[in-house]
Amino acid sequence: MLGALRGDRVVRTIAGFVVLAAVTVAVCVALLSLADAPLPVARTVIVLGGAAAVLGFLVGPILTGTADQLDPRRFRVFGVDVRAMPWILALGALVSVPSIALAAVAVCFVITLVALGTPPIFAILAAVFGVLSLAIAARIGMAVSSLLLPERRSRELTALFVLAVIVVAFPAAVFFASLEWDGLVPDAVASLASVIASTPFGAVPGFALAVAAGDAAGAWLSGVVALVTVIALGAFWAWLVARLLTHTDRPTTTRERSGLGWFGLLPSNAFGAIAARSLVYWSRDRRYLVNVVIVPIAGVLTVFPLLVAGVPLYIAALVPVPVMALFFGWLPHNDAAYDSTALWIHVASGVRGAADRFGRLVPIALVALPVLAIAIPVSLALVESWYLLMPMIGLAASLFLGGLGVSSILSVTSPYAVSRPGDSPFQQPQRSASRAGYAPAIGFIATLVLSAPTIWLFVMTILEDDAYNPATFWVGLATGVVVIAAGAMIGGRVWDRGGERLMEFVETA
Amino acid sequence: MDDHDEQPDVASAAPAEKKAATTRTSAVRIVAARPTKKPAGRASAPRTTAAKAAAVKSASARNDSVKAESADAENKAKEAKAAAAKRAAAKAAAARAAKAAAAREAKEKAQAEREEQEAQAAREKRAAQALAEAEAAALVAQESDEAPEEPIFRPSAPAATSEPEPEPAPAPSAEPEPAANPDPEPEPEPASSPEPEPEPEPEPDAAAAAEAVVVDVHAPAASDAIVVRGLVKDFGDQRAVNAIDLTVPAGSFYGIVGPNGAGKTTTLSVLAGLLRADAGEVEICGIDQAKNPLGAKRVMGVLPDRLRTFDRLTGRQLLHYYGLLRGLSADVIEKRSADLMRAFDLAGSVGRVVSDYSAGMTKKIMLAGAMIHSPRVLVLDEPFESVDPVSSAVILDILRAYVDHGGTVILSSHGMDLVERVCSRVAIIVGGEVLAEGTVDEVRAGQTLESRFVELSGGASEVEGLEWLHAFSD
Q: Which chain B positions have a beta carbon within 8 Å of A276's beta carbon?
């Protein structure tokens, strides 16, 4: 453990320790404060928290890609007995900084449980089971990570993981934070917690709290699940260790593929290539960056004129998300022109139009999804109208995906001159022939027209009642999916027939 | 295209001409006579008509081998007559001038230009007897139609022996036309030339070998890698390519040369499927481009000139990109790009962004990208521009090996000596039309390719009105 403090990453390591310590203290304080809370609230919170902890210990090592100090393969050379190895390692893993933090939390867990009325013996049993299952879960996470994922994590893969976490975790966090607890557990959350308590993720705390609540059936169910879970985790861990020790890495995946960036990550075909190339350009070309940065700003800025004009905050706060979705969908409406004359590679290679169309949409999707995933819950939390979640997702999908579909057609049918690669994004392109550019306006209007049913349904949801709620979601989603599919197909067809025409455009523009 | 190659010659030749018109012109005449002196020597008779006879012989020989001069045939004929007349008058000066000619032997380019300039000057003092002489020459020409083709293969015979009959030399390009075919023959050539070509160098076995290498390409029926018929391309109201016919046999190294704006890049772009022709047919390895554009693109590797590439990718990513767009698997790309990087001496720069590459390196990596899917045909626009000599030698080796194994290369270039050295066939395109087409020996017709090119494109005779430049202001 102290060895981690040697080497040239001392600052980072110490910062990690500090953060971990702070989190541990916070969790302990929170746990202890639950001792005074009503039992149902404490039960719900602890079960959900326990499930989150299991998930975190299992997935955390995969996401962060930490090198496992106790990788079974490192000890292979010492001739340790294969059957004893898993248990030695699991025990050894308990002597680590996260495990110490875990032990601290477990102690608080026991104190809280006892205060809530769990017999001490069961409380301690639950804590031991919990610590064991978490430690083994972390081991398994690391083993799986080293088995399935490349040794050196590329930045791109890490970025993808972070995006996934944002998309999943952030809305959930905003949702839970905005709920009105008031000592009462919302029904939905309570039923969710009781379901989780009978799954492997929440079985251990579920068992202890069921005992505290005098819920014999629940206690038996959770207890059996918890026991089976620990045994299954242990067995899986033993099997993993044996496998790690007796199998070599797949030689195909260890082949040198570094230095390719996104190309190494995305599928090896024309679609993947174009997506990877677009991603590289989005991250290295200022012209794209400016576009992306402007969208959220524009979305938020629309609120102020509305507020000044006297629109109630409730309505104004719902505007930015659809506006952002609309802008994101509209952004790629001229993407072919951004390639300038380098477009010849696509034309000369005979790239299929559909592959080209879809590939170019990948970067904007990767940017827009997390932004919308954050913006939607924040916006809904502001107006405290969670019942609008589904309609809002439907509306955003319709505007965003529909916009992408329209853009896919426009970018091949009516490209217009943009500043060349390497020029300033704000520079007005100088061209011998100027063409009137209706494409941007058409892109906006077509998207709005196609999304009109969804918009109408959304407005009706706000004005009338919840009856329109599911309809808005499904109509919006269907509109978006259909339009993007049709748009990419039509755009692809135009591309297949008119590659030469596009070349003439980029060479003269 | 680039104009660096032609201009300096013109510029340097023009002032020289002005200074010593008479002595030089005669000297030029003598030097230019070199090709013809052997036939003349064989005649071995110092007759008064010997000069004319020799001229006609060589002229007709060339006429047989090169059929594409027809475009300016009439013009040339006039010049030739005038030149011949002048020559008769200037015979006395010949011996004197021969010495100067010998000294000048090395500079064949300059001579070629001067030759034309002289001809034009002579046109002004056209004499009445010119006509008579030309007619006489025509008669002789008919008799000596069977003249062998030696002149073509002896472009650099020693000038010293050429004293006896120096005059006729300039005539070859000129006189044959009125004699052999009073009416210029523009049409027959394009029509007739494509057919005979396949025979000279068919490499069926090599093509078969290539087939084995290129997996997903179905076998072309014909032995012609590229067939172009009546290709027309307009940009607005300007006609860039005017009914071009080309036939590139499989397994040949085909060069396209031409002055700036002649339509070379346009022609190659249409071949590569980057531009759509306004009229005409293009067939690549037996695949009709209009009917199956994707199939035609699949068998081609393309290196355009003056077009960007995705230069924010690293070299390695760029090659990967080329390969994936061509539908190769990642493993194959990995291996081939490593080989290509090594072959093109780019191994040290794989991780650098292509926009940081020099112009030559960018050219090389784009060429590597054009080859990565092992195409049947390589369409290269100015592949050697801004590439250093070592690299271009390497590239040439690669391309030669590729051609030896049945691949076909069609390239455009300004480097005449390079085209002359490496290409098996050449087409000279001027003003969107093919003026000469055939094997290198056929096209250059006893001259160097460069002098022939300058002659056909008619560029060197235009430099007038720059006298103020030679007066120096201060």
A: 317, 321
| Residues B19 and B147 placed together within one structural domain of the fold | yes
| Shared domain check, B195 and B166 | no
Triad A332, A336, A341: Cα angle to 5°: 150
Min Cα distance A341 → chain B (Å) is 5
Lowest mean pLDDT among B112-121, B352-361, B434-443: B112-121
Angle at A58 between CA A55 and CA A61, to 5 degrees: 125
| Centroid of chain to Cα A382 | 22
Residue B470 in domain? no
Range of the domain at B274: 189-461
Q: Are residues B205 and B327 in the same domain?
A: yes
Q: How far is CA A373 from CA A145, A174, B126, in A?
A: 27, 10, 88
In angstroms, how far apart are the furthest CA atoms of chain A? Answer: 85
Q: How far is CA B31 from CA A253, B15, B168, B266, B413, in A?
A: 70, 20, 11, 38, 28
Based on the fold, state whether residues B181 and B195 are members of the same structural domain.
Answer: no
| Average pLDDT over every residue of A397-403 | 95
Classify residue B378: in a domain, yes or no: yes
The SS3 of residue B230 is: strand
Specify the amino acid at residue A146.
S
How confident is the model at residue A66, as a pLDDT? 65
Q: What is the pTM of this model?
A: 0.64
Which tokens is A490 given? 């039509």
Q: Are residues B282 and B416 in the same domain?
A: yes
Residue whose C-alpha is closest to residue B369's, from B399, B422, B333, B420:
B333
Q: Do residues B85 and B166 share a domain?
A: yes
User: How far is C-alpha A347 from the chain's CA centre?
Assistant: 35
A261/A246 Cα distance (integer angstroms): 32
Q: In whole angstroms, give the CA distance from residue A450 to residue A215.
A: 54
Mean residue pLDDT of chain B comes to 68
| One domain, residues B231 and B164 | no
Task: Report if residue B106 sits inside a domain.
Answer: yes
Sort out which chain B residues have CB atoms less than 8 A from A346's CB and list them.
Answer: 325
Write the CA distances from B3 to A274, B6, B311, B415, integer angstroms: 36, 6, 26, 11
* Residue the block writes with tokens 């960036």: A261
- Report if residue B118 sits inside a domain: yes
Confidence of residue B75 (pLDDT cuts 50, 70, 90): low
CB within 8 Å: A350 and B273: yes
Residues A429-456, mean pLDDT to the nearest whole number? 80
Pairwise CA distance, residues A114 & A124, whole Å: 9
- Domain ranges in chain A are 2-246, 262-425+436-508
Query: Are B204 and B352 in a shared domain?
Result: yes
Q: Which residues of A touch B330 (CB under 8 A)?
A: 257, 268
Q: Does A287 contact B at CB distance below 8 Å? A: no
Which among A190, A170, A168, A183 is positioned nearest to A381, based on CA atoms?
A: A170
**Closest approach of A150 to chain B, Cα-based (Å):** 17
Which residues of B are less than 8 Å from A284 in CB distance?
A: 312
Looking at the 3D structure of chain B, how many domains does it have? 2
Of B168, B185, B202, the domain-final residue: B185
| pLDDT tens readout for residues A76-118 | 777 667 777 777 777 777 777 778 888 888 888 888 888 888 8
State which of B185, B200, B218 marks the end of a domain: B185
pLDDT of A181 reads 57
In sequence order, what are the beta bridge partners of B300? B377
Chain A: give the shortest CA distance to residue B362, in Å.
13
Q: Which of A252, A340, A345, A507 would best serve as a mutation to test chain B binding (most B beta carbons within 10 A)?
A: A345
Interhelix angle B108-124/B73-89, rounded to 10 degrees, is: 80
Q: In what order do the strands lie in the sheet with B300-303?
A: B300-303, B377-381, B408-412, B253-257, B425-430, B433-439
CA of B236 to nearest chain A CA: how many angstroms apart?
12
ipTM exceeds 0.95: no
